[in-house]
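Q: Given only this backbone (630 positions), what sequence would you predict?
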């Protein structure tokens, strides 16, 4: 086998470059799945803003509190540019005095020393103004970026779960990293550089007109040439850099997937194919980088040599004016100095335009999240009752998308201390029931009550504080084991944390670790086995005093012996709680008070273990092995 073609590899992996320069934070081709099993959408990055004016106004709204500092920045910018130009212009009288042999040598030296002091003062003013300008602008820009990032993070906490189901982790992270950083770079450098470049260009043009209008006209003739060259090179450079980013994303995506699946690669002996496919992607990246670096590198030399042509022509004609037109030597010296630098602000302005447009496109992506609709606020009449755990679903129907019903007329009830189990095929709607109970989504029809109160009339934070959940996908935070278990109840004592770990059968393996409960967890528990991570999640739920407990495939990642130990500990935990269990292992639900068998969003059987076996229906077929869960 020769492996996939370059075109197939590009199509499969280069989408990673849409989010960040080094690909997104997901594995190639990975799709974020929500509680309903629905795939998420990929990032839609763009290089140009759709509403530049509105986005600029919104970005600048974060600068309002820094108005006084911005005024000082502008003053410093003008002082910097003005002092620098004044220093350059002072060379004219200095050179003219030195060249005037009608004045004695002593007078010329004295004049030169006086003017050197003036020059030093002018350039020192420029240096101090530049220092203050950049120091103040950095404070302003980073203050604005800090507020943008804080507002973005705060908005994420208010968004409903369906938003995260529809956006990948990498896509969201790119807003905090690339997009916000680009906004900071625009405020730090690009905006100041554009203003400075504009002021410098206007100042230079003014000084040149004052010095000699005819030489100025000759220099201005070259402006269209400078602009044409700059835009032409940047257009090609941008195209090659875009292709380079796509190729780089493909290379990184392939490496990420291959390293993550190295065991599978070796099992099936696909090392040579991987080398061949990577070689194609790597060679493609090399070719794209050659074009990008070439056009990016020739900008300076071409513009510099074009400016030298203008400089030479201006100097030659200026020399003739000195000989035959009465033009002074000092005027010629400062004019050719201005002419040699005239292309620089034009070049800088052209380069900064694309940087600003790219940053504004990133800002639009950030504000797009900020404009997302938050979770529906609690009703003004919502209450915060003391919840006991009487749960009832009455004729509940729901679909994640319009026209696609997941749950159809579901009715059930559970009292405190009862254990209700859900059994059924993947996609039957088991997890959806628990998502509705937690109000991650709101039902379309029917009603859900807790202690006789509709959950819409219970404050959302109070509702969720009274529900403890253990999911199939474990998640641990960076910190110690003690801190991770305590996440279930922040005011718990160390003794209560240890007791919760014992209840979840996690105490034994924790004590075998080198630092026990102070063992640090990094990378979502990469230093622990999948079963150990799940035991810590169960201990976290055990620590919570929530009267309602949801176990969504909670023991799927542990072996049978550990599962039995957990069940014995959980029996005490569930004694006074209303517990909902979702499980593929039917052995874990035999002691449930009621078992609901779901299929295509409907309850097709209900009863306890013995009742369902006696019915000889779907549960009986599953339990006896005549049918398997899909």
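A: Predicted residues:
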């Amino acid at each position: 086998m020769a492996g996939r073609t370059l075109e197939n590899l590009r199509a499969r992996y280069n989408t990673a470059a849409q989010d960040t320069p080094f690909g997104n934070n997901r594995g190639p081709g990975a799709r974020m799945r929500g509680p309903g099993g629905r795939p998420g959408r990929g990032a839609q990055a763009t290089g140009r803003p759709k509403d530049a004016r509105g986005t600029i106004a919104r970005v600048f709204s974060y600068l309002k509190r820094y108005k006084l500092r911005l005024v000082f920045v502008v003053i410093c910018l003008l002082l910097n540019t003005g002092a620098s130009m004044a220093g350059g212009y002072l060379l004219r009288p200095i050179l003219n005095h030195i060249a005037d042999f009608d004045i004695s040598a002593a007078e010329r030296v004295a004049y030169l020393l006086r003017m050197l002091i003036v020059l030093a003062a002018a350039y020192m003013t420029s240096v101090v103004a530049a220092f203050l300008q950049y120091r103040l602008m950095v404070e302003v820009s980073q203050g604005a970026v800090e507020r943008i990032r804080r507002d973005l993070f705060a908005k994420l906490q208010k968004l409903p779960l369906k938003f995260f189901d529809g956006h990948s982790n990498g896509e969201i992270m790119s807003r905090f990293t690339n997009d916000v950083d680009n906004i900071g770079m625009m405020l730090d450098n690009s905006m100041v550089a554009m203003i400075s470049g504009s002021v410098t260009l206007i100042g230079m043009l003014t000084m040149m007109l004052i010095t000699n209008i005819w030489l100025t006209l000759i220099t201005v003739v070259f402006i269209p040439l400078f602009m044409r060259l700059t835009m032409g090179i940047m257009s090609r450079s941008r195209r090659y850099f875009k292709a380079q980013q796509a190729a780089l994303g493909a290379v990184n995506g392939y490496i990420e997937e291959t390293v993550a699946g190295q065991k599978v690669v070796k099992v099936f002996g696909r090392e040579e194919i991987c080398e061949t496919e990577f070689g194609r992607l790597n060679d493609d990246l090399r070719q794209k980088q050659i074009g990008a670096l070439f056009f990016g590198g020739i900008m300076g030399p071409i513009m510099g040599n074009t400016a030298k042509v203008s400089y030479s022509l201006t100097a030659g004609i200026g020399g003739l004016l000195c000989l035959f037109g009465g033009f002074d030597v000092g005027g010629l010296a400062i004019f050719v100095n201005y002419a040699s630098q005239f292309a620089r602000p034009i070049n800088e302005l052209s380069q900064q335009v694309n940087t600003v447009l790219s940053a504004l496109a990133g800002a639009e992506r950030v504000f797009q999240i900020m404009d997302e609709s938050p979770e529906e606020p609690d009703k003004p009449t919502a209450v915060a009752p003391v919840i006991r755990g009487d749960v009832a679903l009455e004729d509940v129907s729901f679909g994640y998308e319009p026209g696609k019903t997941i749950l159809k007329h579901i009715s059930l009830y559970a009292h405190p201390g009862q254990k209700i189990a859900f059994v059924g095929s993947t996609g039957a709607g088991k997890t959806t029931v628990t998502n509705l109970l937690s109000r991650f989504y709101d039902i379309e029809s029917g009603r859900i009550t807790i202690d006789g109160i509709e959950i819409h009339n219970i404050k959302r934070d109070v509702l969720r504080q009274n529900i403890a959940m253990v999911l199939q996908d474990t998640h641990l935070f960076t910190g110690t084991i003690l801190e991770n278990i305590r996440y279930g109840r922040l005011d718990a004592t160390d003794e209560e944390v240890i007791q919760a770990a014992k209840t979840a059968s996690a105490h034994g393996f924790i004590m075998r670790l080198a630092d026990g409960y102070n063992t640090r967890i990094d990378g979502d528990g990469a230093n622990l086995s999948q079963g150990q991570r799940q035991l810590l999640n169960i201990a976290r739920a055990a620590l919570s005093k929530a009267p309602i407990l949801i176990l969504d495939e909670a023991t799927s990642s542990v072996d049978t012996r550990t599962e039995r130990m957990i069940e014995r500990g959980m029996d005490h935990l569930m004694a006074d709680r209303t517990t909902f269990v979702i499980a593929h292992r039917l052995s874990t639900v035999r002691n449930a008070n009621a078992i609901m068998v779901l299929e295509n969003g409907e309850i097709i059987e209900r009863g306890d273990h013995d009742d369902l076996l006696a019915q000889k229906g779907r549960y009986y077929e599953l339990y006896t092995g005549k049918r398997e869960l899909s």
